[in-house]
Amino acid sequence: MRDSEIQAMIDALRAIAERDNLNHQGLARQVGCSTGQLSMVFAGKRRPGIRFIRLVVRRYPEIRRLLASSLAQDEQPPSAPARPNGAQQGPERHAGRAR
């Protein structure tokens, strides 16, 4: 996951904690992880692993939309740079030079 995706997930978890009036211990209990792990993820001292993400999505399916839209953006192939009219693809050839 990119840093921006992790931050978006953390922000969503903070919003859920506020909405449900949960402290770190209560949110960790709801998610199914330790309070220490949740605190380290929130503080940026630890990146969330796949197990943590699965626990979060299982408990709070609304976060799945956030992650799915982020992954969908990653799957789009990068667009090819525009070439001026008449430009050829491939390596350039220099006339008169022996290689």
- Helical proportion? 55-70%
Structural class: mainly alpha
- Which fold name fills CATH's third level, the topology? 434 Repressor (Amino-terminal Domain)
Shape: globular
Report the mean per-residue pLDDT as an integer. 81
Total beta strand runs? 0
Uncertain parts: none
How many angstroms does the end-to-end distance come to? 45 Å
Structure, described:
This protein has one domain (3-72): 434 Repressor (Amino-terminal Domain) (Orthogonal Bundle), CATH 1.10.260. It has 99 residues and is an all-alpha fold. It has helices spanning 3-19, 24-31, 35-43, 50-59, 62-75. The radius of gyration is 23 Å and the shape is globular. The two termini are 45 Å apart. Helix 2 packs across helix 3 (35-43). Helices cover 59% and strands 0% of the residues.
What's the quick description here?
The protein has helices at 3-19, 24-31, 35-43, 50-59, 62-75.
List keywords for this structure.
single chain; 99 residues; mainly alpha; 434 Repressor (Amino-terminal Domain)
Topology:
Elements: H1 3-19, H2 24-31, H3 35-43, H4 50-59, H5 62-75
Helix pairs in contact: 1-5, 2-3
